[in-house]
UniProtKB/TrEMBL annotation:
Encoding gene (name): DHX57
Protein name: Putative ATP-dependent RNA helicase DHX57
Organism: Neovison vison (American mink)
Zn finger region (C3H1-type): 295-322
Positions of the C3H1-type domain: 295-322
Keyword hit for Kinase: no
EC number: 3.6.4.13
Ranges of compositional bias, category Acidic residues: 130-141, 469-482
Organism classification: Eukaryota, Metazoa, Chordata, Craniata, Vertebrata
Catalytic activity as recorded in UniProt: ATP + H2O = ADP + phosphate + H(+)
Residue ranges, compositional bias (Basic residues): 1-11
Origin superkingdom: Eukaryota
């Protein structure tokens, strides 16, 4: 073994003089000294702390232990005459150390020991061997933490070698054998009794036990042949080690990742894929035989009857309720996939080569073992294969030849091995005849007479021909020994669908009685003067003219598409046509209509408008329902709701009982939810012929929806207020000045010509040359497909005949890719102050994004005509002294600021609204007469391969342009100015924008599909392929991977318990996971606060004129390098201020640049989330958002409603950060720091902190990213941990992560995704996850194994809790101890 790995001394300390705490002796390299080597002199850097080490990406474990070269070029490496390369400091990720105090180590060991004993009790009650208990993942390096002793390490080592850093305890006289160690050894083919005996003999050391068993087994077969010849004694050990290293290098090259050097120069393993073995031993026969045996002899599992059997389908007892017993348990599906986790974790077969200490291979034969996790391969066959291979190794040793590759070849050749499989008996695969009883450390009532523990993966009949098979009475008592299983009192997650469906039970008798009352009231109302007055207004709308046609077609067809421009009355009138017509008929024929809206605000406003037209208040015959808020009654027959609400209803009521009509409004917007709803409705109309569906679209694509529903009829309603196209050149003379930023440069013009030429094919080039040479077409004419940007003056003149040359000249030099703010300002001046006959009214300007809005706003403020700076401090009556008032409008503004756009200004004052496309459909401003459309917008795009959303500047579609035009003149004729040409509209713009489902992540939709009963058995690809326009397969594949990483979806696309709960929460899956973990770890209130902010938006505001001051205030809330903890502090301060009154709350928000409206919305969301968690059993039952709000005395009322137990850790910021890690993983960023600079001082060289811009931030899949300037971590120069978690990244000018939080070692190890692995690398135990992308150095091997075992227990506990939310972890002894231990480690380490 090389000196870099073998050394005397503890892993946590240097072995030489220069070592000190944290410096590893095994890290000595050329040109670098990292503490003393094994017994040698200490290095100069021996006094460095371990936590300051740097992990380089190239710092992988080398099987030869060769020294690393310095990153700086040495003098010798530079040839004479060559220029000396300039050295640049590299950025690296600091490798942090996983520490654990000796006190915590003792507590964790005690906890794990107790938990393992409880598992042993459960196993003995079922007669299960270690082979059955597959709850825990295997330890890869054959190193196990055994109950009642220190960590067992590498076999045949010096006792001091690899010893842990903690104090060594004396071995307990009653040594308990680890069931996992027994399981590991039995997979080599040895009987469990022999495994237990060997482990006791070797003090629990798995490696030493295996070598002992192999030597014993081979000695009986080969005897004298195993002895080495006298010549071997004279062979140099160094020569043997060198040959072994060369062979390892060759095997690594040949086998790749299949070859692993588990312990350097000691243990090699090679993964094998032996299809002939797998196919020979069919699983079905084995399962049938074992099942028949079990059914005949075994009793009913008592833990199953109590509802808490962790073994699931692999339990040795029956999982059925006796016919004479009253069912006292809640039915639940047990997900036992965790019991088979090892099957996919590694290869099904492995060849293992072991070299003892001072072994002189290839002159001596190594120990050879064949290992398999194939439960159907008999144990005896494994040993016969091992003996056969060892015999070959002895033959090769006689000629001193390397043997490993030859052994691999033999195993892959079926002919040699198949002959060995006929003999299914071996002495060492069955118990010894006179086996000794187990020590009293293992809990067994009658150890002398107990049955031998036989793994389920063996052929029992062949292996134990003469073993006594006494039936032992089942243990009924012994409940004092450990905590009793929790009895499930409430229904578990699988019964929640029943609870949902009860809400929609349709009682025909009561409905008909209610209908009779409604019909009577409607007839009376029709005679009223007020109703008749409003009816006349309704009859003036274009939709009224199509009333009879619509009703006639509905009587003949099940599905109907209605197309009509904005303002025609389709949303308000068509549902009333259907309702009024049915109210004039018999009560049993009264319609029950649901009309979906894409946004909450539109559902509320339309319901209020329709109720007003029917001269009643909202909640009677007309109501609305949005997320967790509904205003309706038993009399409601027309319900406006968001699309999401209807999809939620479908989860429990797939047939939509009692509903007669579904109207999907604004279907042209092509939202993710509306597209999915169309798919669901397409299936439902086949099952329910009486259900009628009406799709309403405002734009051109009505035929697309008609074809999707089997060419159903289409009705088109005429435009209510036709808008005349007005050439911009006829009202405005705009000339580009020299040097204008909106002028195309000569370089840009050249590029455009080259681009135009490249876009033409060779055929088109020839065709154009012929046309020109034969004069078939004027020289300046061009194809319609060529954009204006690529044409010169003459070509533009030919394209736009009749347009003045001055306008064409301006067009020929204008940059059409930019939004021309100069042109918009000139147009605004003409509208406000020019001579024209158009009516006065508000002006709505559409711009792509916030940056353009800010630029135009500041530009207008510098113009005396538009300047309204004093208006913010002036009373409304004095506004008349100003000509204009300018309001920006975008989604990041607070609700108070957005409301200002609806206020009508005094006479003579023109209101100018500068908006993003939020004003296109989301809101309606009645007094708008003029619309200026820049023709650009920002659209969310999603890169599935990178998992990244970006905001791209794009041209609007024709549908968008028509929608914008429709915003002008809602109550009268209006004027719309499009800042692009008619040719651009007709030939360059897409007809429709890309559907949302093709440009957003699909995780939430995947969960929704799986939770719907109609799709639960379908695979996701088949469902998505039936959508009106399916998303790309790469996007779906990426979403499935993320859901599997999150633990929400199984590999075969089944919902896990966590997935079911996440699907029930109407939020992003990561936000949902944060809420669930917050409730489990008793920090519910802060988890809900952060979840509400992520689901809505940040309460921090940043006014344009006070940006620096606002940023400074936000930094005052900063804590522990976390944007989320800063948010928590700001929210808590607001809650305290609300208790002092409204005035104090207002002042707090104003002083700290917070939006009071956003904070109130967050409080409302928190109450709604609490109600959801109550419904699914994660907080106390019966909590309702409205009741919490009523009882709240200042603040949101969550703490009082949920109680102290649910929030006992609410003031623990480290635990809250850990919950964020659990929820947001794998959204992790590495922080790479430069190598560090030093400054000379009087006391010596002092390390300088790097500048913030020198830090680099890297994600696993996207490379370098940047922290957004709005984050509290934007200017941070040092992070305590080199890892950050984030919620979303977005691409604008660069790739940014918006909000982020530092996460330390323990949260990542305990809550990070994937399996935790522990490996020995260069003398250190490296704990890694996520395929090694995240790595830590353990302070000792014991710490590494303790953390790994604790992680397994935590995973099992969380799985149990999520399966059965009613389990109270506060009172459950097992759960409360694990949670308390996790909280202590996260908080104190």
């Amino acid at each position: 073994m090389s000196s870099s790995v073998r050394r005397k001394g503890k892993p946590g300390k240097g072995g030489g003089k220069g070592s000190s705490r944290g410096a590893r002796g095994g890290r000595s390299h050329t040109n670098k000294s990292h503490g003393g080597g094994g017994g040698g002199g200490g290095g100069s850097a021996g006094n460095r702390k371990a936590s300051s080490r740097i992990w380089d990406d190239g710092d992988d474990f080398c099987i030869f232990g060769e020294s690393r070269r310095s990153s700086r070029p040495s003098n010798s490496s530079i040839r004479k005459g060559e220029a000396r390369p300039r050295w640049k400091p590299e950025v690296k990720v600091p490798l942090q150390t996983l520490h654990m105090t000796s006190e915590n180590q003792e507590k964790v060991k005690a906890l794990l020991r107790d938990l393992q004993e409880q598992d042993a009790d459960a196993g003995s009650e079922r007669g299960i061997s270690g082979e059955e208990e597959d709850d825990e993942p295997e330890c890869d390096d054959e190193q196990y933490w055994s109950a009642g002793r220190e960590a067992s390490l590498v076999p045949d080592c010096d006792p001091l070698e690899y010893a842990g850093s903690g104090p060594v305890e004396p071995q307990s006289p009653e040594f308990t054998v680890s069931t996992f160690a027994v399981q590991k050894l039995s997979r080599y083919g040895f009987d469990t009794e022999r495994c237990q005996a060997a482990l006791r003999l070797c003090d629990g050391d798995v490696g030493a036990s295996l070598e002992h068993l192999l030597t014993q087994c081979f000695s009986e077969t080969f005897g004298e042949k195993m002895k080495s010849s006298e010549a071997v004694v004279h062979v140099s050990l160094d020569e043997c080690v060198e040959q072994r290293q060369e062979e390892a290098f060759a095997l690594k090259s040949i086998c790749g990742e299949k070859f692993i050097e588990r312990i350097q120069n000691r243990v090699w393993t090679i993964g094998l894929e032996l299809e002939y073995l797998t196919s020979k031993f069919c699983k079905s026969k084995q399962r049938e035989s074992t099942k028949n045996t079990q059914d005949a002899t075994l009793e009913v599992c008592k833990f199953y009857l109590k509802g808490n059997c962790k073994f699931g389908s692999r339990c040795k007892f029956k999982h059925e309720v006796p016919p004479n017993q009253i069912v006292g348990r809640a039915e639940r599906i047990v997900d036992d996939s965790h019991l088979n986790a090892h099957e996919d974790a590694s290869f099904l077969y492995e060849l293992e080569i072991r070299f003892s200490k001072d072994h002189k291979y290839p002159y001596q034969a190594p120990l050879v073992a064949f290992y398999s996790t194939n439960e159907n391969l008999p144990l005896a066959c494994r040993l016969h294969i091992s003996e056969f291979l060892y015999g070959k190794a002895l033959t090769f040793a006689e000629t001193s030849e390397p043997v490993v590759y030859s052994l691999i070849t033999l195993l892959e050749e079926e002919s040699e091995i198949v002959n060995l499989l006929t003999n299914t008996h071996h002495k060492y695969s069955v118990p010894p005849v006179n086996f000794l009883p187990v020590s009293s450390g293992t809990r067994i009532n009658n150890p002398v007479c107990r049955k031998p523990m036989i793994p389920n993966n063996s052929f029992a009949s062949n292996q134990i021909p003469e073993v006594e098979k006494e039936s032992e009475p089942e243990e009924e008592t012994d409940e004092d020994e450990g905590p009793a299983p929790v009895i499930v009192e409430n229904e578990s997650y699988v019964n929640l669908k029943k609870k949902i469906s009860k809400r929609y039970d349709w009682q025909a008798k009561s409905v008909h009685a209610e209908n009779a009352k409604i019909c009577k009231q409607f007839r009376i109302k029709q005679a009223s003067r007020q109703f008749q007055s409003i009816l006349q207004e309704r009859q003036s709308l274009p939709a009224w003219e199509e009333r009879e046609t619509i009703l006639k077609l509905l009587s003949e067809h099940q599905v109907l598409v209605i197309s009509g421009m904005t303002g025609c009355g389709k949303t308000t009138q068509i549902p009333q046509f259907i309702l009024d017509d049915s109210l004039n008929g018999p009560p049993e024929k009264v319609a029950n209509i649901i009309c979906t809206q894409p946004r909450r605000i539109s559902a509320i406003s339309v319901a209020e408008r329709v109720a007003k037209e029917r001269t009643e208040r909202v909640g009677l015959t007309v109501g609305y329902q949005i997320r967790l808020e509904s205003v309706k009654s038993s009399a409601t027959r027309l319900l406006y709701c968001t699309t999401g609400v209807l999809l939620r209803r479908l989860e429990g009521d797939t047939a939509l009982q009692g509903v007669t009509h579904i109207i999907v409004d604004e279907v042209h917007e092509r939202t993710e939810e509306s597209d999915f709803l169309l798919l669901v409705l397409k299936d439902i109309v086949l099952q329910r012929p009486t259900l009628q569906v009406i799709l309403m679209s405002a734009t051109l694509n009505a035929e697309l929806f008609s074809e999707y529903f089997n060419s159903c009829p289409v009705i088109t309603i005429p435009d209510p207020h036709p808008h005349r196209p007005i050439p911009l050149s006829s009202v405005l003379r705009y000339v580009l000045q020299d040097g204008s930023p909106y002028m195309r440069s000569a370089k840009q013009m050249t590029k455009e010509k080259l681009r135009a030429r490249r876009s033409r094919t060779a055929f088109e080039e020839v065709e154009e040359d012929l046309r020109l040479s034969l004069h078939l077409q004027p020289q300046d004419s061009v194809k319609d497909a060529v954009p204006d940007q690529q044409l010169d003056f003459k070509q533009l003149l030919a394209r736009y005949k009749g347009v003045s040359k001055s306008v064409i000249k301006t067009m020929s030099i204008m940059d059409f890719e930019k939004v021309n703010l100069e042109l918009i300002e000139a147009l605004l001046e003409w509208i406000v102050d020019g001579k024209h006959s158009y009516p006065p009214g508000a002006i709505l300007v559409f711009l792509p994004g916030l940056a353009e809005i800010k630029m135009l706003y500041e530009q207008l403020q510098s113009n005396s005509l538009f300047n309204n700076r004093r208006s913010h401090r002036t009373l409304n009556v004095l506004l008349s002294s100003f000509r204009c008032v300018v309001h920006p409008l975008h989604s990041s503004l607070s609700s108070e600021e957005q409301q200002a756009v609806f206020v009508k200004p005094p006479a003579g004052v023109t209101k100018i609204i500068i908006s993003t496309n939020i004003a296109e459909t989301s809101i309606t401003i009645d007094d708008v007469v003029y619309v200026i459309d820049s023709g650009k917008m920002k659209e969310k795009r999603y890169d599935a391969s990178k998992g990244m959303e970006s905001l791209e500047d794009t041209f609007v579609s024709q549908a968008n342009a028509l929608q914008r035009k429709g915003r002008a003149g809602r109550v009268a004729s209006g004027v719309c100015f499009h800042l692009f040409t008619s040719h651009h509209f007709n030939h360059q713009l897409l007809k429709q924008q890309l559907p949302e489902i093709q440009r957003v992540p699909l995780e939430q939709l995947c969960l929704r599909i799986k939770i719907l009963e109609m799709f639960s058995t379908h695979n996701l690809q088949s469902v998505f392929s039936r959508l009106i326009e399916p998303p790309h397969t790469d996007s779906l594949r990426a979403s499935k991977i993320r859901l599997r990483d999150l633990g929400a979806l199984t590999p075969d696309e089944k919902l896990t318990p966590l997935g079911y709960h996440l699907a029930s929460l109407p939020v992003d899956v990561r936000i949902g996971k944060l809420m669930l973990f917050g409730s489990i770890f008793r920090c519910l209130d802060p988890a809900l606060t952060i979840a509400a902010s992520l689901a809505f938006k940040s309460p921090f505001v940043s006014p344009w004129d006070k940006k620096e001051e606002a940023n400074q205030k936000k930094l005052e809330f900063a804590y522990a390098n976390s944007d989320y903890l800063a948010l928590l502090r700001a929210y808590k301060g607001w809650q305290l201020s609300t208790k002092e009154g409204m005035r104090a709350s207002y002042n707090y928000c104003r002083q700290n640049f917070l939006s009071g409206r956003v904070l109130q919305e967050m409080a409302s969301l928190k109450r709604q989330f609490t109600e959801l968690l109550s419904d699914i059993g994660f907080v106390k039952e019966g909590l309702r958002a409205r009741e919490i709000e009523k009882r709240a005395q200042g603040g949101d009322g969550i703490l009082d409603a949920t109680g102290e137990e649910a929030n006992s850790n609410a003031e623990n910021p480290k635990l809250i950060s850990a919950m964020l890690c659990a929820a947001l993983y794998p959204n992790v960023v590495q922080v790479k720091s430069p190598e560090g600079k030093f400054q000379k001082t009087s006391t010596g060289a002092v390390r300088m902190q790097p500048k913030s811009e020198e830090l680099k931030f890297v994600t696993k899949n996207d490379g370098y990213v940047h922290i957004h300037p709005s984050s509290v971590n934007y200017q941070v120069r040092h992070f305590d941990s080199p890892y950050l978690v984030y919620h979303e990244k977005i691409k604008t000018s660069r790739v940014f992560i918006r909000d982020c939080s530092v996460v330390s070692v323990y949260p990542l190890v305990l809550f990070g995704g994937g399996q935790v692995s522990v490996q020995l690398q260069r003398g250190e135990f490296i704990v890694s996850l996520d395929d090694g992308w995240i790595r830590f150095a353990a302070a000792s091997h014991q710490v590494a194994e303790l953390v790994k075992e604790l992680r397994c227990e935590l995973d099992q506990l969380l799985q149990d809790k999520i399966k059965n939310p009613s389990i109270d972890l506060c009172t459950c002894p097992r759960g409360s101890r694990i949670i308390s231990m996790i909280v202590k480690l996260v908080t104190t380490q």
